Structures are given as C-alpha cells and as structure tokens.
Amino acid sequence: MAIRKVGVIGAGVMGAGIAAQISNARIPVVLLDRAGENGGPNLAKQAIGKLLKSKPAAFMSRRNARLITPGVLEQELELLADADWIIEAVSEDLALKHAIYQKIATIRKRGAMVSSNTSTIPLRALVKGLPRSFQRNFLITHFFNPPRYMRLLEVVSSEKTSIRGLEEVLHFADHVLGKGVVRCKDTPGFIANRIGGFWLQCALLEALELGLTVEEADAVCGRPMGFPKTGVFGLMDLIGLDLMPHILGSLCSLLPQEDALHAISDIPPLLSGLIERGYTGRKGKGGFYRLNVSAKGRHKEVLDLQGGEYRRPEKPRLESLAAAKSGLRALLEHPDRGGQYASRVLLRTLVYTASLASEIADDIATIDQAMRLGYNWRYGPFELLDRLGANWLIERLESEGIAIPPALKKSAEVGGFYKKKGAGHQYLDANGQYQKSTRASGIYTLSDAKLGAKPVAVNAGAKLWDIGDGVLCLEFCSKMNSLDPDILGMLVQTVADLPRSHQALVIHNEGPNFSVGANLGLLLFASNIAAWSEVEGLVKAGQDTYSALKYAPFPVVGAPAGMALGGGCELLLHCDAIQAHSETYMGLVETGVGLVPAWGGCKELLGRMSRDPRRPRGPMPPVQGAFEPIAEARVSTSAAEAREGGFLRPHDRISMNPERLLADAKALALSLVPKYKPPELFVFQLPGPSGRAALELAINSFHRRRLATEHDVRVASKLAWVLSGGEQEGPCTEAQLLALERSAFVELARHPDTTARVEYMLENGKPLRN
Amino acid sequence: MADYKASLTDMQYLFREMLPWETLRELPGYQELDAELADAVLEEGARFCEEVLAPINRSGDEEGCRLEDGRVHTPGGFPEAYQRYVEGGWPALNCDPEHGGQGLPRTLSFLLEEMVCGANLSFGIYQLLTQGAYHAINIHGSEVLKSTYLEALASGRWAGTMCLTEPQSGTDLGLLRSRAIPMEEGGYRLAGSKIFISAGDHDLTENIIHLVLARTPDAPAGVRGISLFVVPARQLNEDGSLGKDNGVCCSALEHKMGIRASSTCVLNFEDARAELLGELHGGLRGMFTMMNLARLSVGVQGIGIAGAAYHAAVAYARERLQGRDLRGARFPEQAADPLMVHPDIRRMLLTMRAWAEGARALALRVATALDISLEHPDPECRRDNHEFVSLMTPIVKSLGTDIGFDVANLAVQTYGGHGYIRENGVEQYVRDARITQIYEGANGIQALDLVGRKLPERTGRNLRHFFHPLQADLESWQQQPELHHLIEPLGKAFGRLQRATAQLALKGLQDPVQAAAPASEYLRLFGLVAIGQSWAQMAASCLQPESRPNPAFCQAKLDTAHFYMRHILSQSSGLFASIMAGADVLEAFDEDAF
Fold it and tell me: Which of A168, A340, A410, B165 is 20 to 30 A from B62, comparing alpha carbons?
C-alpha cells in the first residue's frame, strides 16, 4: 500500500510546515487543529495563510497550498479516514497526545500508519496503554524546522512496529519527501537534539566564562570548526532563545542523573532575562543579534555579554582565527581565548558524544548523518574525531584530566572511526569491528562514483567521471562552480570524445550550488584592461560550446541543485533534459550586472516560449514571455517554480531527495539513449522593430514611474532588441539570434555602469542599482 | 667639467600644455597658481639649482661627509647652500599654509625636486627626508605632535629622517628588533640600532626629527607588531627651546659608491624619548604614507639625473671634434666634425632625450593625479586618482630610476674615455644614479608590488584608470591622420600590454611564481607603453609646429616622439615574448648548477 494521502494533526509551526512539505511532493494532505475563536477561520486555515507568507517560503509553489485541506479536529476527524499516514504534531503533552491517539484509533483505516513528531518523549511512553493493533502501526517521525529545508528525519520504532508499515513510511519520507532518514534508539532527545543541545549550551556557558564577545564566539565556533557560519549565538537566535531552556529542561527531566548534561544545564541569568523581555531571537525583538531600524537606516547590532547592552558589531581579531586557517588542530592548540574556547566546546561535545554513541544509535555513521542533516555540521562528531586524530585527542584529554571514552580508545587502537576500503566506506562498530556502510537502496551520489575511482578527464575547472552503464558525469570544480574557459574546454573535449566510449552525459556536482554563472572576475578584469575583443571571444566560446553540447550525437541531462544562475542556467537550457533537485533556483540574472544572457540564454528561453502550446499564437507572445523573466532577472524559488516559469519543460523531472538526484538523472539519460537524435535547428518568427517598440513602451513607463534606472532602461532596451530579432522582422535563425546576443553583450559590457555593476556584484554579492 | 642645465623649457611647456587645467582649477592649491606664477617659480628654482647647488656637486662628491667627535659634517659649501635654500623658502613649497608653507601643488614641487636632484642628488636627499617626515606627521600625527614639529620641518629649520633598516632587517621589515618601552609618565623610551639612515646626522639644521620603526614589548610578531615613533635628536624643553641630546648617536658613516655628500649613518638609539605616531602596531601604514610619496620622489630623482646627463652629453657632442661624417666632412674648415654627426652618437642622444622627456611627462601626469587624489572636492574623483597613483607609483619609481642610470651611462659613453675621468663629472651621475634603483624598495620589489598587489587588487580596478583613458586616447587619435605613424605602433604595444596583463593575472592567480618571475619585464613593458602614451599626448599638442610660438621646440617634440615609437617602444615585442614564456625555464634551472 503506497502512501497517497497524509493527515497532520496540529497546525503549529511544525505541523503546518510538515503539511506544506507533503504538498510540495504533490501529495494531498489534511491539516487539522482547533476551531477558530469567535467564529473566525479555524487554526489550520490560518496556518495555511501564514505558510503562504513565511520566509523562507514553505511552499515550493503557491499552488501547493490548495493540496492542503484544513479542518477542525473535533468536528472533521473523518477527513483522516482515508489517510495512509497520520502525523501527530501537537504540543509535548502526553495526555493530549493520548487523547488524540484514542480518537485516531476510532477512524483510521486499517493498516494506516500513525506517527508522532515529538522531539523528546520516548516511544514507550507514547504507546503505553494503547491497543496492540495501534502499536503495530505506530512510530515516531521527528522532523526538523523548517521541514522544507532541514533534511533530517529521526525515526524511532519499536519491536512491535509492523515492518511493512515502517518501510512504507521510510520509503515515502526518503523518495517522496526527500528526507535523510536516521533511525534512532528510543532515548530522550533522540540523536540530534541530544548532542546539539549539549553543544549549544556548552558553547553558551564557555563563551560567558572565558569572556568572549558574541562575534568572537561565532567566528570561532562556526565555519573554522565546520559548524554553520551563523555560529552558535546566531544559531540560537534562529532556533529561538526560549526553546533552549525548554529543550534542556525536558532532556534533563528524562536523562539519568549521571548524564553529563546535568552538570551544564543551568540557564544563565543573561538568557532568562532576554527571554523575559521578549528577546527570543529572530522571531522576537532580537536575541544575541538584532536589527536596529532607526532614522539613520538599518544596522545590525550585537549583545554585549558583559554589559547586556546592544552595540555595533566589531570584526573579531583573534590570532587563533588566523591559526585556524592551517587546520582544526592549530585552532584548538592556540593559547588565546579563541583557541581555549574552541578546545573546551569541541572536546566536551565530542567526549559526550563518544561516550553515549551506542546508547542512542545503532552505529556512529547514523550519528554523524544526524548532525550533518539536523544541525548543518559539515562533519559529524566522529568524522571530527577522525580529523583531529584519536591519539592527539587522547593525549590532550589526559593532560586535562578528562576520562577517555572507551570508543575513542578503541578507535585509537585500530586507526580511526572510519576507513576507506576499495570503493566503499567502513565504520567502527560498538564491538570494535569495522562494518561496511550501508544505505537505502538506489542512493548513488557523485561521491560514491568517485570513491576509489580516477576521473576520465580533468583540468583546473572540471572533472569527468564514469558513473557506469556508459554514462559520464561532468563535474565543475571551480570556485563557486563559476563557469570559466577551463569548464568550456572540458565540455568541448567531452562532446568530441564521449561517443567513442560512452553513450550519454550527465552534468552534475555536489556543491551547494550547481553554478552561480560565468566567472565575473574574468569579465571584470578584461573590462578593466579594455580587452573588448577578448570579451567577445569569451562570449563566442560559450555560445559555440553550448551549441556543440546541444547538437551532440548523444543525450545530455543537466542535474542541478541549488542555484543555477546566468551561464549555469544557460547551460541547463541547452541540455536535452533536466533532472532538477526540488531545491533548484534557476534564473537568467545577467541584467542584474548590466548585461544580457549571451551564451544562448535568450535564444533558448525564447525557443521554450515559442514551443509552448499554452501561449497565444503570433510572434509577440514568446518575445513577451522571455523578456519579463530576463529583464527582471527573476530566479525561481524552487524547481516547481522553474517549471511554472517555463524554464523546465514537461519532460524535465524533479527529484525531492538530493542523494537520489544523480541516479535519477542517469536513468533519465539512459532512457533517452535508444533512438537518440539531436534536436533540429529552430527557426524563430520574430516581430522585429515593431515588437521592440512595444516592449520599449513598457520599459519607458517603468522608467517614468522610477521603477527602472537609466541603465536599467539601456539594458532592457538592448534585451528587447535581441529578443525581437534586431532590425529584421520575420524568420531568424539560431545563429542570427546568437549574433544579436553577442553584439548586445559586448556593447553593454563596454558601458561603465555595467562595469560598476559587475564590480559591485563581485565585491558585495548583491546587485547594484545604478 | 659638465655644467648643469635645468630642463626649464620642457618643464614650462609641460606645465602650460599638458596639465588637465579644467580639473586642476577646482583644487585649492591651483586656484592662485597660473602659468605665469609657475614659470616664475620654475625659473627661480632653475637659477638656484644651476648657481648654488650644481657648483658644490662634484666638490661634495670628492670631499664626502666626515664623522668627527660623534657629529657628522657635510662637505664644504653644503651648510651655506642649505641656509640659502631655507631663506629662499624652497622647503615649504608644497607644505600647508597653516604651518607656514606655500601650499603649492605637488605637480610643481616635483619639477623643482627634479631640478634639485639633477643638480645635486646628495643635497636633494636631505630635503626629501624632511618632506617625508613633515607629511607623515601631518597625516598621522596628533595635534600636539603637529604643533610641535610641523612648522619647523616646513621651514627647513629642522630636518627629518626615516629609520627602518636594521642589520638583520632590510626588505623584510618583520624581522626588526628595535624596542620602545612605554613610560609611566607617558611616551616611550626607544632603544635599538639602525643602519643605512640617510641624513641620520648632519650640520645643516639645529635638530633632526627621526621617524623610527620599533616594537613595543607586547607587540605581535611580524610586520603587524611594528609601530612608528617620533624621536628628536635633541629633546625639546617645555617652552619649545632645544634641550639636551636625546640618546641618538651616529656611530659610523657608510662609505658609498655614490651620493657621497649625503650622510648615510649607523644610528644607535639609547633610552631615547619617543612619541607614538599614528596607531599602536599601525607603524607600517604610517611608514607607507611616507614611502609611497618617497617612491615617486625617487623616480623623479632618476629623471633629474637623466635630464642632467642628457644636457651634459649634448654639450659635449657639440663641442668635441672627432672623426668625420661618413658621407663626407661636414665642417672641412675644422680639424674634425663634432661628435654629433655620428649616427651612433645621435642614437644615444635621442635615446637619452626620448627617455628623459618621456619619463618627465609621465611623472608629471602621476604628480597631477596625486594632487587631485588629495585635494579634489569630489570623493569619487579623489579615489579614482588615488588608484591611478597607486598603480603608477612602482612604475615611476622603477622606470624613472632605471632611466636615470641608463641615461647617465649613455652620457659616459658619449664622452668616451673622458667620461671615465672624474673631473669631467659625468661618471658621478652613474654612481649617484645607482642608489636610486636600490633604495625606497629595490626595483625588483617595485615590480612585485605592481604584479602582486596593484594588478590583482579589486580584480584589476587600478588598471582601469590607465587602460581606459589610453584606449579612449587611441580611438580619438585614430581620427588624426598626421598622428598615424605614432599611433599604430602605440596601439600594437598597448595590445601586447593587454595580453601580458591578462596572462599575468590568470597565471598569477593559480601560482604567484608565474606572476613574479616576469614581473620586472612586465613593469618595463607597462612603463614603455605609459611613456608612449605621454609621447603621443605631447605630439598631439605640438601638431602644426609652424603655427606655434616655438616651432623648433614643437618640431623637436614631434621628431623625438617619432624616435620613441620607432626605436624604443619597439622593445615591447621582445619584452612581450619573454613575459609570455612564463616562469618555467627560470624555475627549471638546477640551483646547484649556479
């Protein structure tokens, strides 16, 4: 029985977010909560309204909201009668939960699974006194906030849980919701919050004790240690300061007296004071940081941990931070307060984790995955232990008189918690034996393909990997995956060489962003030395490369995740098909830097619009359709939105789980191999100067209303010139359109306002409106 | 013996014709300055240099400085000349009127510096250091420091120094050891030993204000732990009068190849009272304010020597009779024709002239940008010009001093055996010029500054202020057929510079050695193109010479520009080939085989 409909009870932040993510998978969902007060809309309906406004957006497409049916728990319980999975996400009140389970038991269809989104209450407590048949279909599914973006799902089941039902939920969570599922033992706080709570509290107390400023603590206990770049204080602001005592309190009430958390569980008066005054973090009036909005503008302020006043932030100056550049150990060994801080927080957290590993999880790999996915650590705690080295660590702990956890001793004896063996990883189990890492079936990432393999080809900007079954994967390796002549060179070489030995190509990488676009630094440098012919050469090289890719005699599938902007987006537009991760942000953003897309982006988007059967006939509608998103430098906020905007075509596909993206893309590529024929050259029908005039009317009206600057007008007019076919009305070949793109690009690149935009973007990471 | 002759006509021409007067009129220093006043200042300066400074150049070189009873004595005539220099108000030329200065622009004072250094480089060094100290205190000093020192430095009553180098710490300032210990009553006590201190001690002024780099006890290691201190040679009493000696002692004088009338001292500081200048541990920044200005000045020193050597060579080539014109005697009534008729002599003279005048025009452009960067009301204009100056400083320093040495060398060659004889005076130019390629950052360091810092900074933003105006110039000159023979080679050299720049930037990003290895050649290529631009600008301003007040001068400019484009700028293709060959061959050579 596959899961086709889901019910969620409790429309708080978590329940509503979970419902939204289910709707993002295009699965209908019922959301139940209490009736509204004074005849107002019920709470579930209100929650959907809030979801539509939430930032970051909970919905991948606003249309998904319609897949959620809101209802009143007391009156409309029967809405759940045909649900295959019912998720309880009400507050952490055991009696309340029990009452709800009793109700569900009366209406749920036979075999429907029920789970609780509790973050702390053990399973055995939840199911106490419930009928055996209910227990068979019950488990804990602990989502992290916000459910769309945090991939961790902690799952707790008991020996009574039906294996088939459990597997259905796991499969659905993995494939359909895209979650990274982690199986936890039935212990308080499960894995991530148990360790994460200890870590945050430890970081807070040590910062106060050592007298660090908030900025210093965040600079140390952040990126240098592989923790989120917000740092711990920034993270607490994000989580909500009021949640800290809550999590700690409930953990402490359940953990045995000897647990190390008790020793650090006192809430410092500073924190309770902040919470009392409404400073609960970003959701409240601010927290350790706040945005001060005054007549002089908005500026970030930071809390002085000693005085308790807000002040302007200062760039932390610690020698240990400089030392951290040569490695984590160097940071921990540095004698200044930053080094001491790093050392105390990390060592205590890692020792705590190592000492309770087998208590909370089946294996260490599970714990590492939970911390990576649930707290965005770059490395899990055991990976960190391996990075530091067990021997170094033991020496260090001994010198500080800290007891060595047995697991750490064992790992020192055998040489680490992990080792690579051939094309696979192994981890150290609780008995001191190495075990092969296993994962859900069908997961195949580029990292997997790379294990023990050598690239088929490599240069400074890109690598080519064999991913089996005659398929190659081209990976970008440049900074931020920006596209440069090296990558273009690799593409050209691949188009020429691939047919000799392989049958399809996937373009994919595992960076946070598929590609942020062409390397603007190269363009800016060339502009600064007035090397305009080199600029034109670079544009031409990109056009030629992308065209060669499009008309290559084998199928090409682009598999993006994260941002695919500018030249990165144009590359995808030239692929035969796109297999996009659901979190793909696509857009032709060139106008933001005062340019027009000129690696075939105008041409390809115009082609998509021209072929779209939903558009009215005639030469103008496609031009209009391509003009708007490019002129506004619009970026989709999800793959679903990219589809609505016409960047993805009906045959392009979306993967919810990034770990399945490559395998999905490969399958899609292989499906195109039989009888593959390259696309035919397209001839556009374009309106010419009259079409341009129509667009210019709109541009000028924007200018008059001061919605567009003079340079905006210049850039948009040039774009209109390209899209309408230049000076000529009627048929326009791809080559002619590319020539228009090129000429418009170079002309705009020579304008000093464009140079100013490019420079500003490179230096500040955001567009300049000049 | 060669008489010094200032390049007055050329300077007056540059000042009148080549400055962006529309922009300059907006600067405070220029508002009272018109071409007539500038002419008068330059004429007066030229007379002073020719009549007062030049005559003691060779005698100063022969006599050198003496260290007697712990005090340095400058050669005969120096104290008197210095006295006249102060009385003439020359030291205060570009100082702030608030401190008794005349507030004239640097564009003008650089030309005067060129004359002073051409006439007598040793003398110019004393003045350069005083100026450096004045500006460093003016920019970084507290109000107390300013009111204590600036007036006396501006007037030349007191002199200044820059004390950086120590025996173990030359180019690498991170190694320096001098200590400054804070005192309870405020201020510091400074101890340490400095070497190569120009003007470290002398008898020209009653007091010397040393700016000294040192470490405080808690300072971090390396260059980030260096602070800058003001240490007067004689302490000042409460009422401002001079007190006792401040524990600064000259223990030895260096014996040098050239600039022998400039005192180069080993200075020992023992328990000297010192005041912090600028921020604690921010010494490098304060020092760089001085250094950057001083680097431009050193470039100008080189140009000064080039001008002097050129005039000496021309005078000699006119009067010295030797050999005959290859196509037949030009002056049969004389025993021989003058040197001037020989093609190789003409080649040398034209090379000297093209280098000296071209470099002078370039330095003036940079000096003008410096004035704009300091004084212009529009902050964007100030910033752009500052970036241009920062880009061009290593080029002016390095190329200006290389030109000074090369031209001095050609002057000796023109003189032949007589050039090698001391009493004829031209060999002194070679020896004096040699130091300018070394001090204030050796020329190799300038090249690294250019490729390692100025070029990549903000993705090449500094370059924009050079490449874009030149591109625009080229496009507008293309419309003038009478300039075509000049513009074609310049356009080609510009293309080479563009390609070399892109190559260095790309390769340097991946591997700094790839940018460092060809750095000196790249700097020279850059300088060649920059001077080429100056020549084209001068040529454009001298078109239709017959219609101009000074037709011969304009014709000579056009002809020298032509010579430069044909015979000097053509070196750009050789440099380009070498730059593009990269670092591989250089690196591959086995170190043990040296």
Answer: B165
